[in-house]
Amino acid sequence: xxxxxxxxxxxxxxxxxxxxxxxxxxxxxxxxxxxxxxxxxxxxxxxxxxxxxxxxxxxxxxxxxxxxxxxxxxxxxxxxxxxxxxxxxxxxxxxxxxxxxxxxxxxxxxxxxxxxxxxxxxxxxxxxxxxxxxxxxxxxxxx
Length: 143
Prior knowledge:
The protein is α+β, with helices and mostly antiparallel strands.
């Protein structure tokens, strides 16, 4: 079962959200305080959304953090999947089921696209399995 948390439910899940988001986005230790403060503020003000996956006993299986973003060029509304983390391996069908609520949310908000970024090949595979197609690649060089 996947549910979208209300802002008032965020504190109850905050420790799991912190772990999942820092792990999924590979946030450096020195940046975590600022990152987590910004994330908490965004979730409590409903500028970001948190979806959780629960099993039949209501144990936490996974967390997805999303954010609604307007494209500055086209004006189109898009949903950006900021973090996706699972504590338990899930097969493709489970991922499809989990993702349906996020997809329905994006549609209800008038979004044209859902985007995500990841350097994790397993997340790429999951994305492709639920219908994502590669849009572009980002390259980085340390200076």
